[in-house]
Write a structure and sequence with these properties.
With 748 residues, the protein is an alpha/beta fold. It is 27% helix and 17% strand. The chain has a seven-stranded mixed sheet with strand order 5-4-18-17-16-6-7, covered by helices on one side. Bound molecules: ligand MGD (2 copies), iron/sulfur cluster and molybdenum atom. Molybdenum atom (MO) binds at residues 151, 346-347.
């Protein structure tokens, strides 16, 4: 079947509509696109009520997404920085030659690890897979990482630690209305995934309870039965305090702990050191509220904890998520129906983007680069000697910090001197952004693939204008682990080429005539083989099945014995239960059934993906944030999102209606704090941290703690929140502390 074939005709004017998905967040809402009657090449978004995740609902970003396809806002020809110092139009031939030369020259002068690659969680699985392959084979570099490191990496690390596998949600969203209680930790999904709010409204309508933990009274918190407002950076103590109360009140599920877990004694001992009164002092959450939360959570027969960036984007994010998982395990939740722990992944392909090899330490299928058997398997699919694959590289911030070839780096023989940037805008979105920007300017060579001239693309030596969502086909894996197909609905502008084509052309110029196809389905077929037997096993998934079944949840091994080449000991099929898949979900258990594996909407029902099948408690203790307030910097800054802008704003700042809704940065602060400063609504405020100074208008709100200010991070320039943020890293996930740093306020 042709994945690009238009869907059946729908709607009034009978113009054909193409079923596809939104370009933005991890919900990957289903939508259909129909040619606009008036504009040549224009597209109209139409509802696709049949797609289960969003049932037709879209947020304003999704509805206006076709605006970013317009030639008015996007790049439509390659740009090269000329002698004038300006970026000027160039032919594809010249631009590609320049990029290949720039990367090759650095490699031959300084070695392969002097060339870096920075990818993005918005890339399709096919692109992320090809980018990782391109870095390891063509460039031979270990220096590849991506913006997903800034996103869900702490939850991924904690999930792997506890369950042996990292899939954001181990159950579909449709389970939420049927559970009894949900604790939503640091998620503002009413603004960040609006169509998902419905699941929580239904939960409450059916008698379930919602607890929201956020230092701000967000639109999400307004929906809650109970809203706890901890000091930023204290979720770890909060979770431990709740676990302490669970133990003290005798509400642990001892049979579950004995049957399905290991490590309880140590985790219990660590939690018992966190007295409720101490936790109250650390978090600022009154003890009666803590007790109420424990009661609501334990009283429910089924219950879930869901985390998002609030608790995760901390220098202790991994331990923090582990503490929430411990609470779930102690009360017998994970691997039980309608219960468990999940992380709400953020970017469109935040989930798949981390599974197929653009992360510094990973190979496709969530295999680890340091694992000899994994290297062997993937090298076989790639037709290379495993010895030639480089080892694990640096994490995203460490990579950005290592950029630069200027004189001051003479002492750093390990500097990364040339960079290929694909689908991220670190000048706006990286922590300590002024420093990152300076490092990017100090590169010998920077090539950027983007659809618009982002703030990062403006620094490039060569900018390559690429095609985007509605102009190309590819798979994405949404926050539920559901692999979906985004289909091409319109021809791209003449001057644009796909990221896949760019990589093929660069590879060819660097001596790799083969191995870099540009047809997404052909790449997906290779990805299936590369992932076969891995944790994120896609080998049973095909484009056809995705379309017919509204997406397929991994792990989904190939069960046909003669389905795929390269079988053998790690042949697909046997990995179902080892992956934490629910073997009892109707999936065939052996490798010889002709019945296709149904995929795994619900994980861990039989066993966890650990060697002994048990979930692991990890003993964790509270510690302060990397930067606590002091006399000079007495307040806490936390950062995040607003409804109408997406990420660095590179795309959404180019859409008029979104800009009207959210025209610029602001500093949210409590009226009492504003009064102490003598500041009124709209007054420009300077926010100063050890990294720098940002200025934005005051926005007064009683819905924020008095010791905390909040800034959204979507804008460059004077109001750039990331000028202020602290790049202190989590020791395990290497996640920067976006959610907490010490600042002072001044009237500007
Ligand atoms: N409109 C919009 N939607 C988006 C995006 C976007 O840029 N714009 N981006 C997408 C992506 S990539 C992601 S990762 C998701 C992110 O989705 P969310 O995690 O929902 O977004 P954030 O606003 O970063 O953070 C959520 C909340 O954490 C709170 N918070 C801050 N500090 C702390 C803390 O110390 N503890 C706790 N418990 N909470 C804290 C903030 O007040 C904020 O309300 O959104 C996705 N959807
Ligand atoms: N202070 C603070 N900073 C944060 C966060 C926070 O909460 N607070 N959150 C962090 C998080 S969770 C994330 S995910 C990051 C995200 O931050 P970024 O990585 O900067 O994310 P985007 O703005 O989505 O950048 C994607 C870029 O890729 C381009 N693009 C879109 N589609 C394609 C494509 O198909 N191919 C190519 N080549 N380019 C494409 C877009 O135009 C855009 O320029 O920000 C992080 N930064
Ligand atoms: S919620 Fe996310 S996927 Fe859905 S329309 Fe909005 S941005 Fe797109
Ligand atoms: Mo994210």
């Amino acid at each position: 079947m042709n994945a690009d074939a238009p869907a059946p005709e729908t709607g009034e004017n009978r113009r054909p509509a193409t079923d596809t998905h939104c370009p933005y967040c991890a919900l990957q809402c289903g939508m259909a696109l129909r040619p606009a009657p008036a504009e040549p090449g224009g597209l109209l978004v139409v509802e696709r009520p049949g797609f289960p995740v969003n049932k037709g609902a879209l947020c304003g970003k999704g509805r206006t997404a076709p605006d970013v396809l317009s030639s008015q806002v996007r790049l439509d020809r390659p740009l090269i920085r000329r002698a004038s110092g300006e970026l000027e139009p160039a032919s594809w031939e010249e631009a590609l030659d320049r990029v290949a030369e720039g990367l090759a020259a650095t490699r031959s002068a300084w070695g392969p690890d002097a060339v870096g690659v920075f990818g993005g969680g918005g890339l399709t699985n096919e692109k992320a897979y090809t980018l990782g392959k391109f870095a390891r084979l063509v460039l031979g570099t270990s220096q590849i990482d991506y913006n997903g490191r800034f996103c869900m990496s702490s939850a991924a690390a904690a999930g792997t630690g506890a369950f042996g596998v990292d899939r954001g949600l181990p159950f579909p969203l449709e389970d939420i209305p049927r559970t009894g209680c949900v604790i939503l930790v640091g998620s503002n999904l009413a603004e960040t995934m609006p169509p998902a709010l419905r699941y929580f409204t239904e939960l409450r309508a059916g008698g379930g309870t919602l607890i929201v933990i956020d230092p701000r009274r967000t639109r999400t918190a307004e929906q809650a039965d109970l809203h706890l407002m901890p000091r930023p950076g204290t979720d770890l103590a909060l979770a431990l305090g709740m676990l302490h109360l669970v133990v003290a009140e005798g509400r642990t599920d001892d049979a579950y702990i004995a049957d399905r877990t290991t490590g309880w004694e140590q985790a219990r001992a660590a939690a018992m050191a966190h007295w409720p009164e101490l936790v109250e002092r650390i978090t600022g959450v009154p003890l009666p509220q803590l007790r109420a939360a424990v009661r609501m959570f334990c009283d429910a027969e089924h219950a879930m904890v869901l985390t998002a960036r609030g608790p995760e984007q901390q220098a202790k994010g991994t331990d923090t998520v582990s503490a929430w998982i411990n609470l779930c395990l102690a009360t017998g939740r994970p691997g039980r129906p309608l219960s468990g722990y999940g992380c709400l992944t953020g970017q469109g392909n935040g989930q798949g983007g981390r599974e197929h090899g653009q992360k510094a330490d990973q190979l496709p299928g969530y295999r680890m680069l340091a694992d000899a058997a994994a290297r062997e398997h993937v090298a076989r699919v790639w037709g290379v000697d495993p010895e030639t694959l480089p080892g694990p590289g640096r994490s995203a911030y460490e990579l950005l910090d290592a950029l630069g070839a200027d004189g001051d780096r003479a002492d750093r023989p390990d500097a990364v001197r040339a960079l290929l940037l694909m689908a991220s805008n670190p000048v706006v979105s990286a922590p300590r952004a002024a420093h990152v920007e300076e490092r990017m300017r100090a590169l010998d060579f920077l090539a950027v693939c983007d659809v618009v001239l982002s703030e990062s693309a403006r620094l490039a030596d060569v900018v390559l204008p690429v095609t985007q969502w509605a102009e190309e086909t590819g798979t994405m894996t949404n926050l539920e682990g559901r692999v979906i197909l985004r289909r091409k609905a319109v021809e791209p502008p003449q001057g644009c080429r796909s990221d896949l084509w760019v990589m093929r052309e660069l590879a060819a110029r660097m001596g790799w005539e083969k191995g870099f196809p540009t047809d997404p389905e052909e790449i997906f077929e290779e990805l299936r083989r590369a992932s076969a037997g891995g944790k994120a096993d896609y080998s049973g998934i095909t484009y056809r099945r995705i379309v017919e079944e509204d997406g397929i949840f991994w792990p989904c091994p190939e069960t046909s014995p003669d389905g795929l080449p390269g079988g053998g000991p790690d042949a697909p099929g046997g990995g179902t239960s080892g992956n934490g898949g629910n073997g009892g979900n109707g999936g065939p258990s052996g490798g010889h059934s002709p019945v296709p594996h149904p995929g795994t909407p619900r994980m861990f029902l039989d066993r966890f993906a650990t060697p002994d099948g048990r979930a692991r408690f990890l003993p964790v203790s509270h510690r302060p944030s990397a930067e606590e307030p002091d006399e000079e910097y007495p307040l806490l800054l936390t950062t995040g999102r607003v409804l109408a802008q997406y990420q660095s704003g590179a795309q959404t700042r180019r859409v008029d209606s979104l800009n009207d809704a959210a025209p610029g940065p602001f500093v949210q602060l409590h009226p009492r704090l504003a009064e102490r400063l003598g500041a009124a609504e709209g007054d420009p405020l300077a926010v100063i941290s050890r990294r720098g100074r940002a200025v934005a208008p005051a926005r007064l709100s009683r819905g924020i703690r008095q010791d905390t200010v909040f800034m959204p991070f979507h804008w460059p320039g004077e109001g750039r929140a990331n000028t202020l943020t602290n790049p202190a890293l989590d020791p395990t996930s290497r996640m920067p502390e976006f959610k907490v740093c010490a600042v002072r306020l001044e009237r500007a």
